[in-house]
Amino acid sequence: MALKFTVNVLVLLSVTLMAASSVEAQLGYPVSYDITGKLYCTLNGSIGTNGTATPVFPGALVQVVCVNTTNPLLTGTTLADGRFTLQTPNPIPPNCTLVVPTPLSTCNSSLPATGGLISALRSVGSIFIRLYAKHYVYIPEGFSYVPDLP
Ligand SMILES: *[C@@H]1O[C@H](CO)[C@@H](O)[C@H](O)[C@H]1NC(C)=O
Ligand SMILES: *[C@@H]1O[C@H](CO)[C@@H](O)[C@H](O)[C@H]1NC(C)=O
Ligand SMILES: *[C@@H]1O[C@H](CO)[C@@H](O)[C@H](O)[C@H]1NC(C)=O
Ligand SMILES: *[C@@H]1O[C@H](CO)[C@@H](O)[C@H](O)[C@H]1NC(C)=O
Ligand SMILES: *[C@@H]1O[C@H](CO)[C@@H](O)[C@H](O)[C@H]1NC(C)=O
What we know:
It contains one helix and eight strands. It has 150 residues and is α+β, with helices and mostly antiparallel strands. A hairpin with a 3-residue loop joins strand 6 and strand 7 (133-140). The model is unreliable at 1-20 (pLDDT under 50). The structure holds 2-acetamido-2-deoxy-beta-D-glucopyranose (5 copies).
């Protein structure tokens, strides 16, 4: 009984959310899909055992690559502090991954000179910025090194 109630509420909630977002689209509210994160200069792109002393990975290409497509959907570059933000007004299709094709050896010559980092995308919800612009935010699920990038 309690479970059924919960399921009904969830269905109602998702229908309401879908209705709300299509109304927004019709009203012309600016909507943006943002992928944001920070790359460190480590074999997994994550902060290492040295904590905030871990060097970052500036100037690295970050791309959104979708399954069965050849050209990246989005491309950007990490800033001096290792952060990146990719933005698009279009919804991000399922089956897309984040790829860093710039070799890790670029930031540390002890790291691999071939292959690169890859991560699934995780949706973390939406926020309003400057009143009317709605941003759907995605972050990397967690990078890992692969010798052969897709
Ligand atoms: C990434 O690698 C570092 C150093 O090997 C390790 O401390 C950290 O836990 C790893 N992080 C993830 C998310 O795998
Ligand atoms: C952690 O910091 C120490 C001292 O600066 C350094 O020798 C070591 O290489 C660092 N380790 C990593 C994984 O960056
Ligand atoms: C990708 O292509 C393969 C082979 O053509 C196909 O089986 C698969 O369904 C495709 N996946 C998507 C998400 O389009
Ligand atoms: C595509 O996405 C679906 C749903 O998230 C997942 O089940 C499937 O494994 C993915 N396929 C590929 C080729 O990434
Ligand atoms: C470069 O990478 C090696 C291997 O992971 C690591 O031991 C070393 O600490 C790194 N150097 C710096 C300056 O982070």
